[in-house]
Write a structure and sequence with these properties.
The protein is α/β, with parallel strands linked by helices. The protein folds into two domains: 190 residues, Rossmann fold, CATH 3.40.50.300; 100 residues, Magnesium chelatase subunit I, C-Terminal domain (Helicase, Ruva Protein, domain 3), CATH 1.10.8.80. The chain has 14 helices and eleven strands. The strands form four sheets. A five-stranded parallel beta sheet has the order 2-5-8-1-9. Strands 3-4 form a two-stranded antiparallel ribbon. Strand 6 and strand 7 form a beta hairpin. Helix 9 crosses helix 11, helix 11 crosses helix 12 and helix 12 packs antiparallel against helix 14. The longest helix has 17 residues. The chain is globular, with a radius of gyration of 21 Å. The mean pLDDT is 87. Belongs to the MoxR family.
Length: 318
């Protein structure tokens, strides 16, 4: 029953966001694996639209935050307000106390704001003054950023990037899909948006997460995940060219993310076990933002996806 509900949501997202199957699957994997999501791509690729469409399918509080250079940490966390009638301070919660957060153009906010968001993503809490406040159990940050415009932006530090479960990289659709987008835009202008499926409530979503965690993963699959991670830290064991490309490997969070995302993908595809194809499918989105390339790789025009594809070819499949 729950799988059917999620299949309907997946179909709805595919109709709302044409030509981006990787984005739709990534959104659902992040939801099932209980992790935060960073979506990067040029303007106009329906990044914000996709996140808002997913939020419409979840029975939870949704809030969109437009990140700008003048944003303050208190604009996210909330602040203590002095009540004259009582002579005391009262905490006024900020937008981070919603269940689903859309951090639009996250790289336009300064470091102090990014640091406040980092605590919320990492610890599930925020600190104001001397007190800490626990965030809702269902808490998911879905951030977007534009890689084209660098003026007035603040690149996310590696520590914060590592807090994101997945990093989805989008590209422009092909000509056939572009025609479908034109037709969809006309239909929405004339008839309105598509009917939203019945939203999942928190209990249903938590039950789906529990099912995904209980999927069978063979010891060989765990060893495969560790081997992929070790290939980023000890690339010389596999290939001299790979060693020249990688300056810094991924953290243990990558191993955890690979396992959780592979389980979520296997559950989405209706299996009760994790297959090598599940790990390989999620590996680019899990490792992309965690690998640090060398100057030589950048000088040669090598991108992170090429490095990850080489790792997947070099590490033996169980």
């Amino acid at each position: 029953m729950q799988r059917q509900r999620l299949n309907l949501i997946q179909q709805y997202l595919q109709q709302m966001v044409l030509g981006q199957p990787n984005l739709v699957e990534g959104l659902l994997i992040a939801l099932i694996a209980d992790g935060h999501l960073l979506v990067e791509g040029p303007p106009g690729l329906a990044k914000t639209r996709a996140v808002k469409a997913l939020a419409d399918c979840i029975d939870g509080d949704f809030h969109r935050i437009q990140f700008t250079p003048d944003l303050l940490p208190a604009d996210l966390t909330g602040t203590d307000i002095f009540r004259q009638e009582t002579g005391s301070f009262e905490f006024q919660p900020g937008p981070l106390f919603h269940n689903l957060i859309l951090a639009d153009e996250i790289n336009r906010a300064p470091a102090k704001v990014q640091s406040a968001l980092l605590e919320a993503m990492a610890e599930g809490q925020i600190t104001v003054g001397k007190r800490s406040y626990t965030l809702p159990k269902l808490f998911l940050v879905m951030a977007t950023q534009n890689p084209i415009e660098n003026e007035g932006t603040y690149p996310l530090p590696e520590a914060q990037l590592d807090r994101f479960l997945l990093h989805l990289s989008l590209d422009y659709p092909d000509a056939e899909t572009e025609l479908e987008i034109l037709a969809l835009s006309r239909n929405e202008a004339q008839q309105g948006n598509l009917a939203t499926p019945q939203p999942l409530n928190e209990q249903e979503l938590f039950a789906i997460r529990d099912e995904a965690l209980r999927l069978y993963m063979a010891p060989q699959m765990e060893q495969y995940i560790v081997a992929l991670v070790m290939a980023t830290r000890q690339p010389k064991r596999y290939d001299e060219t790979l060693a020249d490309w990688i300056q810094w490997g991924v953290s243990p969070r990558a191993s955890i993310a690979l396992e959780r995302c592979a389980r979520a993908r296997a559950w989405l595809h209706g299996r009760d076990y994790v297959a090598p194809e599940d790990v390989q499918a999620v590996a680019p989105n899990v490792l992309r933002h965690r690998i640090l390339l060398s100057y030589q790789a950048e000088a040669e025009g090598i991108d992170k996806d090429q490095v990850i594809n080489r790792i997947l070819k070099l590490v033996a499949i169980p």
